Amino acid sequence: MIFDPIQICGLKLQNRFVRSATQEFMAKADGTPTERLGELYENLASNKVGLIITGYSYVLPGGQSDSLQQGIYSDRFLEPYRKITERVHRKNGKIVLQIVHGGRQATVSKEYPVPIAPSSVKDSHSGQTPREMSEAEILHLIKAFVAAGSRAKEAGFDGVQLHCAHGFLLSNFLSPYTNRRTDRWGGSVENRTRIVTEIVKGIKEKAGSDFPILAKLNATDGFRAGSSKAKQALDAPECVEIAKILEKAGICALEISGGISEAGSVTIKSDINSRAKEAYFKKYSKLIKQAVGIPLILVGGIRTVSLMRELLEEGYADLISMSRPFICEPDLILKIKKGEVEKARCVSCNLCFDIEGIKCNFEFD
Ligand SMILES: Cc1cc2nc3c(=O)[nH]c(=O)nc-3n(C[C@H](O)[C@H](O)[C@H](O)COP(=O)(O)O)c2cc1C
């Protein structure tokens, strides 16, 4: 089953493997994508990764949250991105651009000294207290996401993925912990999801209703169960309601993840050294899969081939997404296909976060 083709809206994928969005630290300082990125994606395509999702690309200059992060806030990025998508397509690969605004977790700089968020809730991880966005700023942000989606299409991407996870701006809106608004952008699940559904509507109008829009969704903010923050935070069953709203809005596939930086190491867990620790968001994807009909992509510590098969067969997901294993072994899918490996080599040490460009820095014996 893991090598069966699948279709996401009109997008035909050769197998069930997804390279989850991974910030590569390979763009220029102003966000311009580089040849180095093209090389990395071309290599993944040559190695038969069914769908490649780029590192997160910021839709407005103030929405950056990492150094050497790629951007999509200007038409000047069209040409370099076009070169990248052409390289991937020449190898019969499929590539989707992940788009983001850093929101509460955006980098603070001289030009952007205060992060923006739906509400002014202090982030105990960064120590920053964001500024509550005005209605005009929300409308401006929606326009920026729509322009980014439309640029992605122009640059030859096979779709976009809205980054609605990991504590960045769209997930700040979805979560009742970070969104305390009482206007039409806050309160009910429907109101908190409105910013995303408006972006979907806008991209469909501008880029065409057949342009695939995916979303990476936080199923949980990830605070320790029983803690005072956990009581206010996003978790099941609300994430199921959000998924249903997104499906209705026309999202083609949902990638299930979790965690915001304030909650600690939830998104990118280290030391996944037993099968029991793998697929750490699977209980959420099972719940969501029972409620929606669109393809579900599961990410988070998936390493063992027999588990990948089980996740698909037992109704946890339709696609298997990985980030760190592909940094360690870009040819992992070919190895699995040939039956050469039972498990990814990645030890989840997180040394791959290399500000000179992601790479596996673990010293294997
Ligand atoms: C170096 C690095 C950069 C990442 N950058 C992104 C990103 O740009 N967007 C995103 O949604 N997730 C990002 N993630 C999270 C991964 O997509 C994935 O959700 C997480 O690493 C768990 O999957 P894994 O266990 O297969 O690595 C990143 C992870 C790593 C290790």
Task: Explain the layout of strands and helices.
Layout: E1 6-8, E2 11-13, E3 17-19, H1 35-46, E4 51-53, E5 57-58, H2 78-90, E6 95-100, E7 116-117, E8 131-132, H3 135-154, E9 160-164, H4 169-174, H5 189-207, E10 213-218, H6 228-232, H7 238-249, E11 253-257, H8 282-291, E12 296-298, H9 305-313, E13 319-322, H10 324-328, H11 332-337
Parallel strand pairs: 3-4, 3-13, 4-6, 5-6, 6-9, 7-8, 9-10, 10-11, 11-12, 12-13
Antiparallel strand pairs: 1-2
Helix pairs in contact: 1-2, 3-5, 5-7, 7-8
The structure holds flavin mononucleotide.
What structural keywords apply?
binds flavin mononucleotide; alpha/beta; TIM Barrel; two-stranded antiparallel ribbon; 365 residues
Describe this structure in words.
An 8-stranded parallel β-barrel has the order 3-4-6-9-10-11-12-13, surrounded by 7 helices. A two-stranded antiparallel ribbon has the order 1-2. It is globular, with a radius of gyration of 19 Å. It is built from 11 helices and 13 strands. With 365 residues, the protein is an alpha/beta fold. The protein has a single domain (6-337), classed as TIM Barrel (Alpha-Beta Barrel), CATH 3.20.20.70. The mean pLDDT is 98. Strand 11, helix 8 and strand 12 (296-298) form a beta-alpha-beta unit. The structure holds flavin mononucleotide. Residues 20-23, 55-56, 98, 163, 165-166, 216, 257, 267-268, 299-301, 322-325, 352-353, 358 line the site of flavin mononucleotide.
